[in-house]
Write a structure and sequence with these properties.
With about 400 residues, this protein is α/β, with parallel strands linked by helices. It is elongated. Helices cover about 35% and strands about 25% of the residues. Bound molecules: cytidine-5'-triphosphate.
Length: about 400
């Protein structure tokens, strides 16, 4: 029998504690053994009975329960992952300074496994230099601190500080667990990923578009966040939930995508163009809906070229050591076309995959070859889009040095 991965779910005292119940259920239902360690303040929001019933394990907040089992050391030592969700400003401060006045803070000091913090608090508390310095300290020590989401906070406030969707926090944890004890190698890096497919409007109700779902780009964003990167995801017409800790910029057309990518790329260490960008757009946009006329043949649609964003950012790197990655969807002569495209676009890496009616678009899996401008060729066997994403980040991380 294979041991279940052991997860410690630390819960600190914020209203978002109720969302941690969903996170706990995700872990339990996918075969993890979860020990919930709430702080005393967390129990004001969700009681011990809930944590115990959902996890199937005893719950305590203090080091004084079952002292003979030395819980303040044992729980941390045996964990494969510790995730603190929500992490309050107070909890981040305690963790950054190594305080140990309850079971959770003791566990954080004894854990040798990866640690994920998912902070949630009011915007002012998140932006306070004390909190920001504590977050920087924790990240420098190798913890993954997920950026809070922007949106409705407790009361009437809106801003940055919401706990991301627990389903997406679970995804980050799953990726971190899969990487084991490897350090988050994109810590301190800013990466930009474009995803989805552009739509070029003909009139207010019609557009020229493509079948890209955005799943590969979202997998790239998720995996980069789990590897510690600050991630900007430029999302063209996707219908996918925002990945936890990722700054999502929605766009529609190729021209809007170009603007958003150039802006985000200004301080980026790497740019990955996974979006399917329309090469052409209608020459004119008709302000009112185009009507059919029974006595007339339809007029042909005149097209003009869209800017080639990948070629542009490759030629004019915003930073000298910036790594640029392109994608190529090919139906024939996949490798030869890929090599030619890599040279034409001037990027460092090109992920080439074969597409067809039932391949790649909208599916959960992918198969590709990553070509390097240095002549390298990395085949990625058929598998989850996240596996391909991790190979891309391995190659990017190696080039960033
Ligand atoms: N791309 C881009 N801007 C465009 C078109 C494409 O940045 N106007 C990027 C895509 O995001 C992708 C890569 O270029 O990373 C390859 O796109 P593809 O459409 O396959 O390349 P093309 O040069 O358009 O070649 P072709 O259509 O002839 O296959």
């Amino acid at each position: 029998m294979v041991d279940k991965p052991r997860v410690v779910l630390g819960v600190s005292g914020g209203i978002a504690a109720y969302k941690a119940c969903e996170l706990l259920r995700r872990f339990s239902e996918s075969g993890h053994d979860v020990h919930v360690v709430p702080t005393a303040s967390a129990l004001h929001f969700v009681g011990a009975a809930t944590w115990s019933a959902l996890s199937g394990n005893p719950v305590s907040t203090e080091v004084w329960d079952r002292v003979e089992e030395v819980p303040h050391v044992r729980i941390g030592q045996h964990a494969d992952l510790v995730v603190v969700a929500p992490a309050t400003a107070d909890m981040l401060a305690k963790a950054a300074h190594g305080l140990a006045d309850d079971l959770l803070t003791n566990t954080l000091l004894t854990a040798r496994c990866p640690v994920v913090f998912a902070p949630a608090m009011h915007t002012e508390m998140w932006e306070h230099p004390a909190t920001q310095e504590n977050v920087a300290t924790l990240r420098r020590r190798g913890a993954v601190v997920v950026e809070p989401a922007v949106g409705r906070l407790t009361g009437a406030d809106t801003g940055k500080g919401r706990l991301p969707d627990p389903v997406e926090i679970f995804e980050v944890c799953r990726r971190v667990l899969a990487r084991g004890v490897q350090a988050p190698d994109l810590q301190g890096r800013h990466v930009v990923v474009s995803a989805g497919g552009t739509r070029e409007p003909l009139d207010p109700v019609r557009f020229l578009g493509n079948r890209s779902s955005g799943k590969q780009g979202y997998a790239l964003a998720r995996t980069a966040a789990a590897r510690g990167a600050r991630v900007t995801l430029i999302a063209a017409n996707t219908a996918l939930p925002d990945p936890a800790g990722v700054d999502v910029v929605p766009v529609g057309t190729a021209v809007q995508l170009r603007e958003a990518v150039l802006k985000a790329a200004a301080d980026a260490d790497a740019v990955v163009m996974a979006a399917a960008v329309a090469d052409f757009r209608p020459a004119v946009y008709v302000a009112g809906k185009i009507k059919k006329k029974d006595d007339q043949e339809p007029a042909p649609v005149a097209l003009v070229r869209n800017p080639d964003i990948l070629a542009e950012i490759s030629a004019e790197r915003a930073r000298p050591a910036q790594i640029v990655v392109g994608f190529a969807a090919e139906t024939d002569d996949v490798l030869a076309n890929g090599r030619a495209k890599l040279a034409r676009k001037g990027c460092d890496l090109l992920v080439v995959n074969e597409v067809g009616e039932r391949r790649t678009f909208g599916s959960e899996e992918n198969e590709a070859v990553v070509l390097g401008a240095d002549g390298s060729e990395t085949p990625v066997p058929h598998g989850p889009k996240e596996a391909l994403a991790d190979v891309v980040w391995d190659l990017v991380a190696a080039r960033l040095g």
